[in-house]
Amino acid sequence: MYDAAVSQFPRADVYIAATDDQNARPFPFRLKQQLAQIAGIPKHRFIQVSNPFQAKEITQHYDPENTQLIFVRSDKDSGVAPLPGSVKKDGSAGYLQPLNRRNPEPMTKHGFMTYLPTVSFGPGMSSATEIRAKWPTMSDDSKADLVSSLYPAASDSVAKKAVEIFNTVLGEEKEMVSMPMGSVEEPKQEAKIIKTDDSVSILPSGGMGSYDEASLKSNLGNKLRTLADMLDSGDYDNLEYHIYQSGAMQAMVEALGQYKRFKDKKGNRPIKKDVEIDISNEDYLPEDELIVEYVFQSRPLRVLDNIAGRKDQTPFPIKFDDGSQVMVSPAMAKKFMSIYLSKDTAFQKMIDQKISQKSVFVDVFNNLVKGLRSTGVTVGDQS
User: Fold this and answer.
1) What pLDDT score was predicted for residue 110?
2) Nearest-angstrom CA–CA distance, 83 and 81
3) For labelling, which of 1, 85, 179, 351 has a CA lying 20 to 30 Å from the CA of 297?
């Protein structure tokens, strides 16, 4: 849908608006974002919002008086609320209206909605609902084939990560559905780890502090020996409390089990440093597969980013505040953005701040593409 929207609206800033609401859809935002990155959607174009059909988290960055707001949906949702074309009690048009390219209006007056063709994938599927329904009963080979059709450009390791994400969420959903009526399953507490330069600290749930693996095992061993002494002495009340009520031992055992499974799945891949990682949900990607981007603010860079995604070679204008413009072809925009995105964050931010004026934009654009120096910054290297 993202690529189709970019192709349909080449001069627009295209975003995917997603919520963290799991009432209707089981994926939390952080996993939606990981899957979006695997699909090739830039991180700064995938935004968490409270309401996708208001998306204030996105619109607040634009001038409402000269910005047109267009919501793009799949044809399969053409009968699903909210629908465009509503009429107020006084007979005037409601805020959300069908897209009319001949009569653009700013978002202070109306928001517009349009629909793009539904895309099929996998074995005749066309919606996330179908994936959620079929995934738990699919074979490993069928799951791999479906992920390959969803993310054709993904490497084997990234595709495997996508399968793990689907298994984590949709597998749990199947288990909950299959529970007998009246039963209640206690949610498993989530341990975390923090990787430092020379060690990994394990943080069991419940605010019990941090341990390395050896000290956590030693502490748990001491508690188990104390329980054995209570059992021998007949101190059953304290025994019952420590096993079933305090929660400390359960948190330690679960932390060790989750850390073991985390290590088994991680293999030899690196762990992000100085970041809390939820090892129950495996909320991480290896460092060499993470997509880290500086979210650029200047309009020239946003327009270049859109032009670079075009499939044709028709030049498009980049307009500046003084009314002047520069025509840039998709090929040149793609080359510029490829070099720009390969730089570190400090370099990207510097370029972003420099190219708001036409004369500076032309110089920086040409120098960066040619690999020349610009204002003391080396732009020809790929570091």
Assistant:
1) 92
2) 5
3) 1
Q: Is 146 helix (H, G, I), strand (E, B) or coil?
A: helix
Look at residue 12 and tell me if it is in a domain: yes
User: What pLDDT sits at residue 109?
Assistant: 93
Sign of CA dihedral 84, 307, 313, 382: negative
* Whether residue 252 is found in the same domain as residue 277: yes
Query: Which alpha helices (DSSP H) does the chain contain, by range?
Result: 2-8, 29-38, 56-59, 128-134, 140-150, 156-177, 213-233, 236-240, 248-266, 299-308, 330-341, 345-354, 358-370
Among the listed residues 28, 80, 17, the one whose alpha carbon sits nearest the alpha carbon of residue 52 = 17
Whether 74 and 111 share a structural domain: yes
Contact 44, 293 (CB under 8 A): yes
Number of structural domains found in the chain: 3
- Model pLDDT, residue 173: 43
For the question of whether the overall pTM of this predicted structure is more than 0.70, the answer is: no
Q: Side-chain half-sphere of 271: how many Cα atoms within 13 Å?
A: 25
The answer to whether residues 16 and 160 belong to one domain is yes
Residues 314, 222, single domain; the answer is: no
Structural domain harbouring 278: 192-287
Residue 187 lies in a domain: no
380 inside domain: no
Per DSSP, the three-state class of 12 is coil
80 Cβ contact list (under 8 Å, min separation 6): 73
pLDDT of 280 reads 65
